[in-house]
Amino acid sequence: MLRKILSIGFCFIFSIPFNLFSQHEIKIAETESKVPELEQFHEIIYSIWHTAYPAKDCAALRSYTKEVNILSEKINSAKLPGILRDKKAKWEKGLIEFKKSVDEYNKQADGTNDAALLKAAEELHSNYEILVRIIRPVSKEIDEFHKVLYVIYHTYLPNKEYDNIHSASSNLLTKAEAITKAKIPSKFESKSEKIKSAATDLLDAVKSLSSLDKSIATGDIDAAVENIHTKYQKLEELF
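The structure assignment produced for this chain is given below.
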């Protein structure tokens, strides 16, 4: 009897770390702006665009159809991580065009018109790049901020975990400050003043949350987090 009790006890103890580790992995996956299936497709699109296409090697392009179909189907079935939920509409729209370009690539690969096949390869590459740009973080600093905000807004806030919101606010403040100090990419130079202004507004919103005592009315904390989320969306829209 004692042996049975000890056995059950050990099983319970040793199961805890694995469970916690699994939950930790899930949280990390949900805050990473990545779609592994899209990254897997890069190898074949690289061969198409940087090797076969410039050499006009249509025999090679035709030989890639099986791999293109297998890997593109994985992209079609891919699930966006939680942090990219705001990109879902754009992703689905881009996916429609990507599917069309895969179908066209297959059609031309089965035919004998090399010029049409080269054009289909160009379209496939273009629509793949569009999908990549849709999910690519605007900048490292904004991505790091969003990872913290995502957990606060989509986990702590709806679950009323105000102690966790309070604890995370200092980290959020550090990330917001980093955004205001980050160099604006040259391609957005024309919007630099608007971006700086939006980044400052975001930082001010985070400061407002950080200044709140954790014992304050929860409605004020809710409003502060909502304000941060709104300011973040306004900043991201500028890109």
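Interim note for the steering committee: The chain has ten helices and no strands. The CA atoms of residues 153 and 159 lie 10 Å apart.
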